[in-house]
Amino acid sequence: MMIYNQADGRCVLCGRKIKYEDMTIDHIRPTSLGGSDSVENLQCTCRTCNTFKDKMLPDTFFDRINEIYLYQMQRKYGKKLKWKLANKLIKSMAR
């Protein structure tokens, strides 16, 4: 309940509001990569995000999400000038 309340009832990865009974607990640093079961290493997540994150470290997870987002936006808006400008800005911020 403490972890759920700390997250204000939201998945810390996607921001969606979730019911307490639908919450899953994610290890920020997976135990398979040396993470512990301490409260400081646990976070509130929805099942979808927890399943997708799996055994990734936070930076690896967010990099993967960004790759997927950029790829899908490129497919959908690749020829539009607004996307070309936005994509250039996003890539410059990631460096």
Can I get a quick summary?
The protein has helices at about 1-5, 45-55, 60-75, 80-95; strands spanning about 25, 40-45.
Overview of the molecule:
The protein is mainly alpha-helical and 95 residues long. Helix 3 packs antiparallel against helix 4 (81-94). The chain is elongated, with a radius of gyration of 16 Å. The mean pLDDT is 93. It has a two-stranded antiparallel ribbon. It is built from 4 helices and 2 strands. It has helices spanning 2-6, 47-53, 58-77, 81-94; strands at 24-27, 42-45. One of its GO terms (molecular function) is endonuclease activity. Residues 3-51 form the HNH nuclease domain. This is HNH endonuclease. Keywords: Endonuclease, Hydrolase, Nuclease. It holds the Pfam family HNH_5.
Key terms:
mainly alpha, two-stranded antiparallel sheet, 48% helix
Question: Which value, in Å, is the CA radius of gyration?
Answer: 16 Å
Contiguous uncertain segments of 5+ residues: none
End-to-end separation in angstroms reads: 38 Å
Structural class: mainly alpha
Give average pLDDT, whole number.
93
Q: Which term fits the overall shape? A: elongated
Tally of extended strands? 2
Helix proportion: 40-55%
List the strand order in the largest sheet: 1-2
How many helix segments? 4
**Biggest sheet record:** 2 strands, antiparallel
β-strand percent reads 5-15%
The helix/strand series, from N terminus to C terminus, equals HEEHHH
Keywords: Endonuclease, Hydrolase, Nuclease
Protein name: HNH endonuclease
GO molecular function: endonuclease activity
InterPro entries: HNH_5, HNH_nuc, NA-targeting_endonuclease
